[in-house]
Amino acid sequence: MKSGIKSISLFFFLLLSSFAFSQKVETVTLQVAGVCEMCKARIETASYDVAGVKKATWDIESGVLTAVISPKKTSRQKIADALAAVGYRSELAQADEKAYQNLPACCQYDSGIEKHEKD
What is the CATH number of domain 24-107? Predict the structure, then answer.
């Protein structure tokens, strides 16, 4: 009886392990225009709103968004489109003009306002 329970437990462990490893993820980067901490929050939130994005971090200094994605569910282009919809241009998509105009003045990266210093 004990060997049967061990065999069943081992079977389920191997089944769950193989499922976990079959969920492939990929790290992608995207150049995104922005200037401040509010931009960072908005860019990362918009990225997380895309199905299949597991992690998203935007670096203010370099303007690079690094995202861990499930490539079966999303792509760089889908993330770029989501960012464009909230007013941020990237190397793959232009910002929606109306969304850009609705950004706070400090977040309007094409306004000539210098980047904010990190606190």
Answer: 3.30.70.100
Mean pLDDT by 10 residues, the chain (119 residues): 59 54 84 96 98 97 97 96 97 96 92 49
Which of 36, 31, 48, 50 minimizes the C-alpha distance to 90? 31
- pTM, two decimal places: 0.75
Domain layout of the chain by residue ranges:
24-107
Query: What is the sign, positive or negative, of the torsion defined by CA atoms of 56, 71, 92, 96?
Result: negative
